[in-house]
């Protein structure tokens, strides 16, 4: 198996060139279909190499037809960026369904799940590094170094993006941390940042003021923890390498992440 054209549905909303590789997994991850979006100049500029953006929750990134509750519109946003002269390959890694929390969480949380579920983030990062990234770098004209490799996600995907940046800075140079669910493991999340070297790349961190309005305490936790993480990263010396965006009316939904994605990618794919 290898990359082949995306199997679009009649109601698909994909813009540009999207490819898929079916049945990609490892010992800890059930097979899933990877998605790769190629920038507009890919076929017309054969000598050019591109940075790569790795998206979690890949089924929600490019196509409303496969999404759980809406899409990020990453293909449209990247097309807009390309018109401004910023081009990148984008890779969507679908989550593992019921295993999503386990894959994206760095530690178990029995109080949240009622089980010992969780703690699969290290294995998931290993899956990205050992299986997904070679499938991308081995077939496309990428810039494979960490300075040209971005990992981005929302909610639990935001947590695992930061985890990947902190634990494998030799692979992932920049992270997009959107609407992070730090409340699922605040001690672990903050301790990891406190005890890790200061990232040398860029971090985009954002939050909405209405992340879970049906649960006011949860809504406040999202907002409070994101601001606390901003403060911690600044204390660690991130400075201009950190971009923090807070939207008081922002909700916990793909529509909010789609709206903020252009700014996030402009920052994360920037020079320097």
From TrEMBL:
It holds the Pfam family Esterase. This is Alpha/beta hydrolase. It comes from Deinococcus aetherius. Gene3D superfamilies: alpha/beta hydrolase (3.40.50.1820).
